[in-house]
Amino acid sequence: MRVSVEVDGHVVDVYDAKCPSRAVLEHVTSRWAVLVLAILLDGTCRFSELRRRIGGVSEKMLAQTLRRLERDGFVRRVAHPVIPPHVDYSLTELGEPAARQVAGLAYWIEEQMPAVSVARASYDERS
Amino acid sequence: MRVSVEVDGHVVDVYDAKCPSRAVLEHVTSRWAVLVLAILLDGTCRFSELRRRIGGVSEKMLAQTLRRLERDGFVRRVAHPVIPPHVDYSLTELGEPAARQVAGLAYWIEEQMPAVSVARASYDERS
DNA sequence: CGGTATCCAACACGATACTG
DNA sequence: CAGTATCGTGTTGGATACCG
Fold first, then answer.
1. How far apart are CA B66 and CA B49, in angstroms?
2. Which residues 18-77 in chain A show a CB within 8 A of chain B?
């Protein structure tokens, strides 16, 4: 099963659920990954600072998100051998353009919120 | 709770879980919405054709995804009053740039898959 | 501080059956 | 054809407790 789409003169193939790139896309656009990437655009950040700035994320989910992004090569994890522990997270060369696109989408959506509200009001009225 | 990020000279604010734009972002980047938007970039499409081209999506989830995108103003639904029913889905003026960004990200990720594989191999080896 | 392990609730999702 | 309704389940995700 293949889905071919043209974007800016390029052909995009989105395969079925078993396509590996679809999994990566889901990692990057997942609930917490979007926010992690956006924050890391600001620069290196520690675990607990990420947790504080995102707000509402559990330790478990943040750790899971970070490990997945690290494994895919978007995030770099540097653990300093000190006590108490000190771990820095930052974007890799691969992660930065990803973060930029994701954050760009977030920014664009925020700009469009008035239009979205209008559309919703219109939809809800018809129903 | 506020997260400020600079992207291309703009300041992006990603608020906490109650921020309305965060919900819209999740709608647009959700599992099936990404694929629906990508396909609709190709042009108008009927319900069953969407279902066929995506592959692996249930009627329920496709309907739910389409309704959410329609309500947010990204997708236009046109029902022709004929028997058997004929319903066309297409992108709105708001939906097209959204679809372009999402599909662009999907395309970019697919390009980076070799790098992702290398990163994964490296990560898995260290563990 | 920066996690992991465990448990449990909510819900996302799919399968199936049914309808205008 | 284009859905809706209902049900069952598997995964997601939060809370809590604990560890190096």
1. 13
2. 20-21, 24-26, 28-29, 31, 34-35, 38-39, 41-42, 53-56, 70-73
